[in-house]
Task: structure prediction
Amino acid sequence: MGILLWLVYGAIIGGIAKWLMPSKLPDGWGITIGLGVVGSFAGGLPFGGHPAGVISSIVGACVALFVYSIWSDDR
Result:
């Protein structure tokens, strides 16, 4: 059940990050969920269940999306 919650949370956080930082890359839901999970883990880990963890998760997902867009342009 924990993995399913991480995927749902990652989809929500990744969707918000994608909405805040739209790109021209043709990314699917898999990339969005993956970047959301990576960003929420990296950004929200220090805050645990604190409400600031949601904001830092979104910031972390935006950073992950930015790094991914740079990496994808180089390929």
